[in-house]
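Subject: design request, 56 residues
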C-alpha cells in the first residue's frame, strides 16, 4: 500500500528546493500542495520571489 506525503513532508521538500534554487522541482511540489491543500499561490510566489522571477 502506498501513501501520499503529508503537508509537513511537502513543505519541507519545497523549502529545500527553494533554498537550493531548484525551481523545476519546486514547481512539482507546489502542484502537489495545490492538489491536496490549495496552497499553490503561496508556494509559487515563494519560489519565484526568491529567485528573481521568471526562470525561463
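Subject: RE: design request

Done. Sequence follows.
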Amino acid at each position: 500500500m502506498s501513501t501520499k506525503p503529508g503537508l509537513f513532508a511537502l513543505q519541507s521538500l519545497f523549502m529545500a528546493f527553494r533554498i537550493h534554487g531548484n525551481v523545476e522541482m519546486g514547481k512539482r511540489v507546489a502542484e502537489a500542495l495545490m492538489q491536496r491543500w490549495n496552497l499553490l499561490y503561496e508556494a509559487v510566489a515563494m519560489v519565484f520571489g526568491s529567485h528573481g522571477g521568471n526562470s525561463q
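Helices lie at 7-20, 23-37, 40-50.
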